[in-house]
Amino acid sequence: MSSDLDVQDVVKRAIELNDYSYLLAKVPYSQFIGMAVERFGDEMVFKLPAKDDNIGNPILPAIHGGVIAGFMEMSAIVQLMVFMQAKKVPKIVDFSIDYLRAGLHQDTFAECKITRQGRRVANVSINCWQTNRKQLIATARAHFLVE
User: Please, what are the domains in the chain?
Assistant: First the structure.
């Protein structure tokens, strides 16, 4: 996204239409992994569909850990952009992930919670699961510089 105006317009359009595919289309990595998002009121649920290109361990088969981490980080960025109605893309300061179990070759979901939002820094926690929201495959914490 090239300018401040573009980012703000893209976010505003996504919120008005409740269609975040246009926002995700502006991010090549989210397109590459096949990421999607649905919003239900104040809750956003991010989806990483089962895709052969995302497999890291073909024996299980399991999703590559980097794909899971990238999906979770991108989910946090989109969540911040939407709920802050961002003028700029938030910049990652720190990202820490805990892998809890293998992410099998099936649809994967994530939800984010903005745990603290200051004037310059926002903290986001991200949970990732597959078939049961209570059986997480990964959890992460991220800090972003927001302006």
Answer: 4-145 (3.10.129.10)
d(CA 72, CA 8) in angstroms, rounded, equals 22
For the stretch 60-96, pLDDT in tens is 999 999 999 999 999 999 999 999 888 889 999 999 9
Token pair 């895709």 in the structure block, residue: 51
**Per the structure block, which two tokens stand in for 91?**
């910049």
Q: Give pLDDT, residue 26.
A: 85
Phi and psi at residue 101, in whole multiples of 5°?
-160, 165
Residues in CB range of 97: below 8 A, 6 or more apart: 68, 69, 72, 138, 139, 140
Give the 3-state secondary structure of residue 64: coil
